[in-house]
Amino acid sequence: MQLSLCMIVKNEENNLERCLSSVSEIVDEMIIVDTGSIDKTIEIAQNYGAKIYNFSWNNSFSDARNFSLEKAAGEWILLMDADDELEKNDKEKVLRLLETDVDAYYFETLSYVGDEPGLDVIMNLNMRLVRNHRGYRFSGAIHEQLATNILKERPSAKILTEKIIVYHYGYLNQNVIEKNKRERNIALIENNLKENSEDAFMLFNMGNEYFALGDYAKALDYYKKAFKSFDRNLGFSPKLIIRYIMSLEELKQYKEELEMINVGLKHYPNYTDLEYIRACLYHKSGNVVLAIKGFNRCIELGEPPSYLSFIIGVGTYRAYHALSEIYFEYEDYQESYKYCLEVLRIKPGFTSAFHRIAKILLDDKNISVQVVKGKLEDFYGASINGYSYLMLAEIFVLEGKYETAYNYIIQAEEQISIKDEKLLYCKGVCLFFLKRFDEAIEEFDKVTGEYNYEKSIYYKVLCFLLSEEIPNSLEILSKNQGFKDFRTGIIYNAFIHLVLEDPSEKKPALICEDEKEAQQYIYPIVELLDILLRLEEFEYFERALGLFNLIESSEVLLHLAKLYGRHHHYELAYKELIRSIKLYEKIDVHGIELLKRSLLKIDRRN
Question: pTM to 2 decimals?
Fold first, then answer.
C-alpha cells in the first residue's frame, strides 16, 4: 500500500465529497477521523469506502491528527482537510513523488476568501505529503506543526516544496460563520499564549484571527509583539510582515506602512507582494510616476518564490491590471487597452480587465455598439456559451446599453437554467433600466437565494415607487427589516417620505449625527442617486439629494462631486468640489484629479 489519505472531520457534509472525489483515484486508503459529526459526514465518507474512526475532541488538533496517522498503513500519507480540493491536473505529480527519497513535501494552498470562490485568493505553503512509519508526529493544539518534529526525529530528513495546488474553501465567509471558527481558534490560541506569552508564531496566529474579524488595531498589536523576536528564516516570517503591513493599510497609517514595506524588502528583496503593495500606496497617494515604476518592477521580478507568495498574480496580471487602471484614469486609452490585453492573455477570467476593454471601446464614438459586440465576442471565440452571454449582459448594463444587455440575456436563457439566480437578477436589472417595471418585479420575485437577494428587494421598492405605487414600496420595506445591510433600508424609507412631501406624513428625522457613523450611510445614498441618474429620473434625483441633509458628514459634497464625475457632468462636479473645499476643507487625491479633469473638460467646451 503506497498512499494513505488522513483527515480529521466534523460536520463537513457540504465539503467532504468535493475533497474525497479529488483524491479518490490516487489514494489506496482513506482514513477519516471524526470528532463528533451530527450531519451526513460519515455517510459520505462511507460511500467512498473510507475507514472511519471516532475521536473524542480534546481541544488539540495535533492529538486528532496523530490519531489518524496511527491508523494509516501506506508508505506515504497525504494530509488534507475536508474543505480542501486537489487540483485535478496535479494528481499524476503526486504519484510521481512517491518514488523519491524525500521525507516530506509542502504543496501550495490557494485559499478562497470572500463570499464565493473566484480570483480573490491568498497563497500559503502547507505540508501535504509525508513518509509514514518513521515516527513523525504533529505538535501544537492549533496551527499544528510537523516539519520541526520531522527534523528533530531525523536531522538529515529532506523536506521540499512542490508546485502542486490544493484549493481551500474554509475561509469563505459562509464557512467561517457556520463553523464559528474565529471564536474557537482564539480560545485555543489564548490557551497556548498562557503557557508562553512570547510565542511569536502564536502571536502571529492570534493577529490573523483578529484581522479576519476586522479588528485591525488588535491584529496590529499582536503582529507588533510577534515582530519583536523576528527571525527571517522562520517559515511564517514573510507572512508576518505582509499581515503587519496590511493592518497598517486598513488603519490608514500610510507612513508607517511604507516604512514597514521598506523593512520587509530589506529582508526579502524579491518579495514581489511588497513591491506591489508599495506601488498601490504610491498610486493611492497620487504619486503616479513612482506607482508606474513600482508596477513595472513587479513585472520585472515576476511571481515570487512559493515561500514568499501571498497575493496571487502580483508579478503578472495584477500588476498589468494596475497599470491599465492608471493609464485609463489619465485617459491614455491606448496604453490602458494594451495592458488589459496582457491581463487577459495571462488570466482570461479576469473580468475587470474585460470590463475596461468594453468601456474603452464603447466610449469611442467612432465605433458602433455592433462593432463593440463583435470585438468582445471575439475574445471568447468558439468557447462562447450562456455564461459568456450573461457576462456580456452585465458589462453592457454597467455601460448603460440596456437594450443590448437584454438581448444578451435572451441568448443566455437559451443555454442556462431559467432558475439560475444570477441570470434572474441580471434580467431584472435590465428590465428595470428599460423602465419595464412590472416585468422587472416578476424577475426579482424569483431571486430567493443569497445571490443579490437584498438588492433585488430594493430594486422592487424602486419599481413600485417609480410606478407611483408607494404603498407597495412601504409594505416591502416593512416586511424586510432583518437585512445585514440595514442602513440601505433606512435610506430607502427616508427617500419614500421625501417623495411623498405630504404634510400629514411624518418628515424623516436626522438619521445620523455622528460623523464617523455617517460614513456608513453615504454609500447607499450615493448608490441610490447613481441609479436615478442612470434612469434619467431627474425629478426623483433632486428629491433624493435631500437625503444628504439627514446625515452629519463633511464628505457628502466630495462624494456627490465624484458621482457627477462618473456621469460626465463635469461642471456640476467642479461646483461641488469647490463647495467641499470652501465649506468643509475636504478634498482627496481622487478629488484633486477630478478637479483637474473637470477644468480641462469645461475649458474644451468653452
Answer: 0.81
